[in-house]
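Hi V.,

You were right to ask for the full record rather than a summary. Here it is.
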Amino acid sequence: MNAATVRNVRRKKQNKRIGDKNMKTLNYLMEILTVSACLLSCADNGEGIGSPLKISKDYNLPQSGASEAANRRILNYYDKYGSFVLYDFTNKDAMWVMSTGNASKGGREYFTTLGDPTNVDTMLDYIEDIWLKYFSEDFLKKGGMPYRVFLADSLYMQRDFGESGGIVKYPTNYMINGDAVIIAGMNVISELTEAEKKSRKVELFNALWNYYKGKGLVDNPEEFYAGTDYITPPHMSYDEVGREWIYTDEDLDALRNRGFIPDYNAYGYTKYSEIFMQYSETNTSWSNTDGATIKANDYKYYLNQIIQATDEEATEFLKYPAVATKWNFLVNHYKEAVGIDLRALGK
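Predicted structure:
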């Protein structure tokens, strides 16, 4: 075999190897295209890969035990506001929060007990009467009704003091826990007096108001604080007979003319509910409190008076222009910003 023939044979073998390699590459590419086409087909059919994920709800509604009418109302809350109103749940469920995942907070344990489900109708009337009716549907849809609303019979914090004190339970009516609110009293709601309902309403409102502020649903308007002197200590007089510092009528007029009112006290006026208190020549609650806290207290005192004071009590405050300016600002501001009439809460 001459040299030319050898070269031709080698060239044919090399071309065959290249052809075989190209064919394998082509086959591999065809396999990829076929799989891709199948995936696209599956996605288009809504089956297999590419189909929408089915996310199950956290709770199944309706629950069992309450009347059909009550369950329909609960379903309506979910449809309108995306909120689960629950009366059948575990304590772990009610107390769970993403940060801790348990019911123990700083050595304290929180517990709930379930109520009689036949009382759910009355409980729903109750939360409508003391809470939901005061807020617009738009506000409730934006998060004004928390994601979970637990209706319980009792709610309490428990501490174990060991041999010295044993286990002590501290009952409470409400608790905000993450994106949930726990409302107690299911088995006793029908027995509450109007005064007790009002007291619980204010308690719930204050808890929810802080929750709303934390969620950015309610603002803290800086205009409320404008024009108020939070630095100069108010004047108190020393009573030689009682040997104590007191607010005379003149002192109170000066305090009100500066725009300060006391925190609400259901048992009547006390000088200790004022924003400034003098105990001695050198010891005062104003000088020992930072400016941010003084402002926060001022806002809180106004809010508590607006939602609780009687018309007669409000009239006494509103005769002072500085008080009327701040009072009316808060009332009008939240009517426009949130759609809530704070004064209506006190009725």
